[in-house]
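Name: Ubiquitin carboxyl-terminal hydrolase 25
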Amino acid sequence: LKVFINVCDVDAHQQTLLNQLREVTGTTDIQLLQQALQVSNGDLAEAVAFLTEKNAKVPQQDETTYYQTSQVASDRYISVGSQADTNVIDLTGDDKDDLQRAIALSLEESNRAFRETGITDEEQAISRVLEASIAENKASLKRTHTEVWSDSPNPHDRKRIDNCPVGLKNVGNTCWFSAVIQSLFNLLEFQRLVLNYSPPARVHDLPRNQKEHRNLPFMQELRNLFSLMVGSKRKYVDPSRAVEILKDAFKSSESQQQDVSEFTHKLLDWLEDAFQMKAEEDREGEKPKNPMVELFYGRFLAVGVLEGKKFENTEMFGQYPLQVNGFKDLHECLEAAMIEGEIESLHSAENSARSGQEHWFTELPPVLTFELSRFEFNQALGRPEKIHNKLEFPSMLYMDRYMDRNREITRIKREEIRRLKEHLTLLQQRLERYLSYGSGPKRFPLADVLQYAMEFASSKPVCTSPVEDIDASAPPGGTTGQQLPPPSTAEQDSLPPLESSGPASSPTTASTVAQQQRVPIHKPFTQSRLPPDLPMHPAPRHITEEELRVLEGCLHRWRSEVENDTRDLQGSITRIHRTIELMYSDKSMMQVPYRLHAVLVHEGQANAGHYWAYIYDPHQRCWMKYNDISVTKSSWEELVRDSFGGYRNASAYCLMYINDKKPFLIEEEFDKETGQILSGMDKLPPDLKHFVREDNELFDKEIEEWDALQARKAQQEKLALATAAAAASAASNNTGQGHGDPEYMEQPSPTNDSKHLQEDTERAISRAAAEQEERSPEALLNAAIKLEYARLLRFAQEDTSPEIDYRLQHIIVYFIQNQAPKKILERTLLTQFADRNLAFDERCKSIMNVARAKLDLIKPEEVNMDEYEMWHQAYRNFRETTSFMVTGLELFQKTNYMEALMYLIYSYQYNKELLSKGLYRGHDEELLGHYRRQCLLKLNEQAAAMFESGEEPEVTTGLGVMNELVVPCIPLLLIHDADRDLLAVEDMRNRWCSYLGQEMESNLQEKLTDFLPKLLDCSTEIKSFHDPPKLPTYSTLELCERFSRIMAALCRVPTEGR
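Structure predicted for Ubiquitin carboxyl-terminal hydrolase 25:
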């Protein structure tokens, strides 16, 4: 008891000094930090110098030194250093005077801030991010609708569908807030505690201290936020008020993105204080119970030996930190965290000088949270770095082996596992000798070596010499005759002297040599003078049948022995692995099950990134992905991909498990009278019901106003159309002509475009006159319409090349391909023949008048004019989409990517809307998707090159391109989850994340850190950006020609470039 009291009474100032020292130096070894403070007598500057020199001399800590748990400070939680470090001091510089001055100034500032405000460095860090969040949110209110972070102006886009979970708006680098709050909100017991919290009675008076002034208003805002998440009609809600309360608790002007575990730690601390005040008021005279402590905090027993003296302490913990580096799964992390040092002395009777300790859980909280330490401080570079190693974790975790009540049996099993692993190591070494046999750098499986030897022994020589297979008598020129090269000097010396009959032999020899010199023949095989008995492939030179039989028998027997030994070793290794895996699988060690509730994921690097959460829904029995305003169904496979690590830059950073034997944690509440499950607004106390109803009424009013505005706009458009139609009708009455026709079917004057349509119409009339016996205008009109329809039908059915699209040439082709109703086709063809720009010969004039008369005779019930207008509007949309596409592709071909992007973006979006109504209503989606993607990649490349230049104007321009053009378009690539689009986004992100590990100027580092969270935001919310570019009016002929030119140019591009 005295030891425990001593632990709780450690001076808080000493812990502050330790935190400051840890932050400045990056050293996490508590014993080393305490030693530095003792050596320096509390002088932080001298302590930093001591640690700097010590780290330079001793790069690694002595593994035999360990600290006693009773020396840790009085924080109830296991402390976790801030991984999101700010203002890192580079301790690797050569100027020691500057270094000492910088350190002293930093520590003096930190001490003065603590003395003046009583606020720790950890709280200041949270303050900085909250300041940034609020500033970003306020700035977003001033942005125009053309920028990135604004909401959709259409409230229907922000309307909650049925009972889908409500998202949280990212109000500026607050994805960490959303991830944590959603994980806690989906713990229904925690949700009930927050919603039903009532402040203590004295809250109506002035708060007594700073904590009450801070925590109680925050608690109220958290209740409001939770109530909106329960009963709001909105798809997502704004947490700015809660963030504002957090911001007001601290005063700082710097900003950074917050670390999830640090925020969770502080959040639970504040909630605990708020509930503690209420508990003390409700249980006057009794020991109060704090529901936050009951829910999130547990206890463990630290059993250890320090320099031969045993100790045993009980400590409370909240979030339990685990190291990731060097471990493959969660159990390995836990085993390493529970055992520190030479544990043999802990349960040995001998008095040993060794030191070490074990942790045994005596009481586990219902909600068990693990912090995965994926950040480490790189002292050489002077900055934190993220650990991307893969770490597996189960969906069901059994904690029995770590419980104090199972201490003895766990020790026995650990000892057995240790022995098995030692034996396993020996077996693996023996197996390695079989699989990698030999003494040189190249080694092979022994069974294969014996097989090769057997194959060699049984090989037969093909011929006595490789030269025998070469036709030496055939020179390269094709002439016959054998010409041997003259022997070398050494060969001449070795040859016997020729028998000569006198000087007559000399001319013959001379002529032979001369002939050889005149006809040089290159014979590489014979000139190499290889041994005459060398075989074509490796084979024994001399081996008898008896020798071969004995050798083959030995090699075959040895190979079988080796293969059997290898199989036995592999089988033994597999059995040992299986034994280790099943060591804790008996029922007695599966009595403390914890089910995975939430996984908080971080994507990015140590100083920038994005957070989201995977949370299990027990009612739908599926995983949900909470990514700011986006809440979607997910799967265990997607969770594994994004959370285990080793894939992209994403990995789990915090794991939340819940006791599977305490279903109240996630069970819905029942009505005490009816026994029905409480859902929606029924969950809320009266004050929060009123709050949510007011907000829903505001949202309903916003929808009503929007609908009224759209109705007025539609009415104005109809009035404008009616006015235009009336004006056209009046003009028609005055001139004896005129029905208001679409611009693509009628031109006010006989331009090239209208001439083209006129020529088609007149050609149909002429053919009808030639083929039709009856010459009446009505008969000619009917015949001409049939001929024109037949011609357009052939176009609609023709299989054309990519540069020809008959839909652009005539609306009827578009209607036929999209199966427009017959009445719509007939009225449209009549409109074509009623064009007042037809030639003014008597036959055409009479046919035009008949067509106009037929149009006037069509009754409203025969042709639905709303449907007629809808089809013509669809064609106008098709032409507009084509104009956007052609313009964007033309600009892309000219490498004008900045201007091309908006045309390609809008053409893709409009085209997708068209294709959603029919296969032939738009253009090739893959083509548009490819060039949209390529345009973004080109812009990203250009912006990255500008950033790499380091020149201030170039850097500003490059980041401006990213913020104004590229980043707003990324959700468009993410929303449909297409593989190529996802890879493109990943390439763009990796390009910018690669700069985090490079040396650069501080101003560039600051800009990069500010920019990366926007780039790494995984939200698929379609945020409004630039308005569509203005398009000039193109005639049909112009549009067809430009379409044909650009498509022909694209067809000439190599396949890999398209």
